[in-house]
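Notebook entry, structure prediction.
Reason for the run: the old model in the group folder had no record of what sequence produced it. Starting over properly, with the input documented here first.
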Amino acid sequence: MAYSSKKVGLKPLQSPVQFMDTTLRDGHQSHLATRLKLEDMLPIAEKIDRAGYSFIEMWGGATFDAAIRYLREDPWERLRELKKVMPNTPFQMLLRGQNLVGYRHYADDVVERFIDRAVVNGIDVFRIFDALNDLRNLKTSFRAAMKYGGKVQGTFCYTVSRFHNNDLFVELAKRLEDMGSDSICVKDMAGLLAPYDAFDLISKLKEEISVPIHLHTHDTSAMAVACYVKAIEAGVDAIDTAISSMASGTSQPPVETIARILEGSERDPKFDMLLLAEIADFFKETRLKYSAFESDYTGVDPRVLIYQIPGGMTSNLASQLAEQQALHRMQDVLDEVPRVREDFGYPPLVTPASQIVGTQATLNVLTGERYKVITSETSN
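New structure, fully documented this time:
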């Protein structure tokens, strides 16, 4: 059903690369401010289920919040309805450890009950991370996922600073495996991982870790395709891609591109390219309905290597500034983010840390004075 490993039968190094499709979660979160409605998922869901993916990420992250806040949809109903028409491919969700799908810590019993219900309603794999890479905040969700039959993908957040390096990330991965992870995810939420650094990191992980390694990245810096190629050369087991019409820029690389690169090799996933083309055509047409949520800030921008905002946050930040008639200050906010991050001690910019830093940067810019207004999250 899900990952295989030495603990449950690790596939040989030269087995086909496993692909996870992110179109129904991170793809539209990155390009369309997480506004894709269930009614625009269901017509194509059966074809996605037949496409040959090893996993489909369709829940968690900002989708829970956006479904309730903006779409007036029940996220649990989305999960159930998609599961009805997609019974063959395991579903994965992004879970923020003790934060679940919110922006603060919840009590242990809430975490356990949420995960219990998520499994019952159709989630198979839990990609579990903490914004500060504080593994203490993962223990409850790990235990709950294992207790109720879910697969645990222990996740560390990749970032770049004078305090972070590949040896540190390998040590985090070893601790995640010791905690019971069925697989390990390198979560490069802003597309900062350079190709040769990816080769070095994955090579070291494959030497030290006995469970499969899954790489998640974004194409904001335009390095993602090369990053995946080098990671595959190093033996990575699984990668995240989106369908081409919802890929690239702040989203993931296109599945079709990576599949063509691997065609004929020992790691060829052997996708049905005609079926992928049908899926791409559907989302190309569907995306037009959401043009109001498109912006100039979801394409390729190598400056992400400086401001490090995650792909899924960029479209939402642009949308929020537009609502305040302040989209023209977007670049000022992006310039302010690394300064605030430095002031905060270089946390990885991933939810909720990215929202805390991004909100404070926005306030610094819009008020005209740094830290004139301080959010409660900043003060805490």
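Summary: The chain has 16 helices and eight strands.
The old model has been moved to the deprecated folder.
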